[in-house]
Here is the input.
Amino acid sequence: MAINIVTIIGARPQIIKAAAISRAISRVFSGQINEIIVHTGQHYDDNMSAVFFEELSIPRPQYNLNVGSASHGLQTARMIEGIEDILLKEKPDFLVLYGDTNSTLAGAIAASKIHVPVVHIEAGLRSFNKSMPEEINRVMCDHCSSLLFSPTLTGYQNLIREGFNPANKAPFSADNPKIVHCGDVMYDNSLHFSVLAEKRSNILNTHGLEENEFILSTIHRDNNTDQPDRLNAIFSALMRISSMSRKKIVLPLHPRTAKLLESNLSQALYEKLKQHKEFILIPPVSFLDMIRLEQQASMVITDSGGVQKEAYFFRKPCIILRPETEWKEIVETGAAIIGDASETLIINAYEQLMQKRTLSYPPIFGDGKAAEFICSEMLANATAKTR
Ligand code: UD1
Ligand code: UDP
Here is the structure.
């Protein structure tokens, strides 16, 4: 008998992650897993949402809650209300949630209160920094979930430290959850889409970019965009790196960042940035364009969780513009260095990475089949009556 799942997406990285499970369902589990996709509307600009559906062959959402942007509480509350209605109507076997956004938290609260088992993909990751909204979201979601899939060994061990018991036996529930270390669905996606990106993306030509002649950077974390001292330090460092390396800096700007550059950079830095010939400031790009940029860049400088991992998948050195990372394996290999938002740390990180002749990229994100594994686990555990 087929099982029914409801998948919640909302923010850009969740739309991309969902492509891996939808692909596994259509290739291997069609007729066994029916997926209903719910878009919360957390991200809504075409280049933050619509662009990904066709390009990544993601089924169109059956529901869109259109919540849009708002304060954390209001945005999450609107989502909870909408998701609860859908769950009561659809009565799925599982609610599938990705990552750590407000859409994730809303799904976890709505489902667990009405006893719909939650599947959390990207479970166990921790920054150990509760001033990040994402840390709250991921901890809360993990502790409401019945099946927890961790992409890394560190994530799995974090769950055990928080009291999750790896010896639990089926039937699983929020009180008797199953934790699994299974690899990363984004690694599945990078393997799958990197060939297509090489064939289809025209982004290098569009911006006159040559392999290894540019550095790719993304910045969108609220503590970087909303705090002028941090934003100024990051852009001052990027300008120094551009002069030292004689390379272009390509910056696909998240709308949050685009809106805040003028008000939060000093006037002098903002003017310099606008006139700087080596800075290519562009709107958000499609996923195929993004991975083409990652494949061809000489280095990645980012505060994004997804982009720091993709830098690793494509064997690029990376500077992380955060005080810590939940992907700590990447830093342990030496392929990435924490630069936070300190001009000195970022420049030091750049110099260190330039001096290293060879960096190593051991396989820490699975075998590219995490999505298929997760689907087979959902199937096995729904028939074992998780509820
Ligand atoms: C959210 C997630 C973050 C994730 C990021 C991925 C939370 C708490 N944060 O952050 O974990 O890394 O998505 O990109 O869930 N905006 C637009 N158009 C859009 C979307 C957003 O203009 O389509 C602007 C709005 O001004 C909005 C701001 O960006 O207020 C922030 O959007 P929001 O979804 O609240 O947070 P993100 O910074 O995108
Ligand atoms: N991404 C994209 N276009 C862009 C910037 C990012 O397709 O202009 C992709 C990127 O390749 C990665 C995901 O979006 O897969 C990361 O999303 P984001 O940085 O917004 O969020 P985070 O991963 O930090 O939560």
Observations:
- The CA atoms of residues 171 and 386 lie 5 Å apart.
- The domain at 191-355 is CATH 3.40.50.2000 (Rossmann fold).
- The chain has a mean pLDDT of 97.
